[in-house]
């Protein structure tokens, strides 16, 4: 049975990656460039550094550096020094980078089947999230999970939450972003 699940997820992943690869190539982008744009469209302010990107994507420093330069040249992202620590840079999408990633992911061609699964079986999304969390625990990697599922996330009001790790009060809307420091509730 687990072999069936594995093969299904593998085939779905291959189809999605192939489509994104093809769409990206029409903009002169490789899959890694799309992954960088996608990550930056979803991460919070503790996770928008080249070091976090390298950990998330598992790529070499050289590939990352070349990719960032290319995306900067294409006007899709900007790099800015941290105001307190000049050794650290933060990356953010430009409007055209954000527009492009919204257009490419998820690919239009597969919006129908993806939405159908979500609408007809909302539990499937929860189950997939649980499976991902369990696999990350097995793999002992950083989870890069969505903030509101983190054990440090504490809701304080309708508009704010408190991050017990960074000891900062942040807007609830940031709770939908992924974070390098995320820790699953065990
Ligand atoms: S609550 Fe967790 S995921 Fe959210 S900002 Fe803090 S450490 Fe990151």
UniProtKB/TrEMBL annotation:
The lineage of its organism: Bacteria, Pseudomonadati, Pseudomonadota, Gammaproteobacteria, Vibrionales. InterPro entries: HTH_MarR-typ, MarR/SlyA-like, WH-like_DNA-bd_sf, WH_DNA-bd_sf. It is found in: Cytoplasm. GO terms for molecular function: DNA-binding transcription factor activity. Residues 2-137 form the HTH marR-type domain. Its main location: cytoplasm. GO terms for biological process: response to stress. This is Transcriptional regulator. PANTHER family: ORGANIC HYDROPEROXIDE RESISTANCE TRANSCRIPTIONAL REGULATOR, TRANSCRIPTIONAL REGULATOR, MARR FAMILY. One of its GO terms (cellular component) is cytoplasm.
């Amino acid at each position: 049975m687990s072999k069936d699940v594995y093969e299904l997820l593998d085939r779905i992943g291959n189809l999605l990656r192939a489509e994104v690869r093809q769409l990206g190539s029409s903009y002169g982008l490789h899959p890694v460039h799309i992954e960088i744009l996608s990550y930056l469209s979803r991460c919070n302010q503790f996770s928008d550094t080249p070091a976090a990107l390298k950990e998330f994507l598992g790529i070499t420093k050289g590939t990352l550096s070349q990719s960032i330069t290319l995306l900067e040249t294409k006007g899709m992202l900007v790099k800015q020094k941290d105001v307190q620590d000049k050794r650290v840079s933060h990356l953010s999408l430009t409007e055209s980078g954000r527009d492009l990633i919204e257009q490419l992911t998820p690919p239009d061609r597969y919006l129908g089947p993806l939405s159908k699964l979500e609408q007809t079986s909302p539990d499937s999304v929860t189950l997939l999230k649980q499976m991902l969390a369990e696999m990350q625990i097995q793999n002992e990697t950083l989870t890069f999970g969505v903030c509101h599922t983190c054990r440090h996330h504490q809701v304080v009001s309708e508009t704010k939450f408190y991050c017990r790790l960074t000891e900062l009060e942040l807007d609830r809307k940031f709770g939908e972003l992924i974070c390098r420091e995320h820790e699953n509730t065990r």
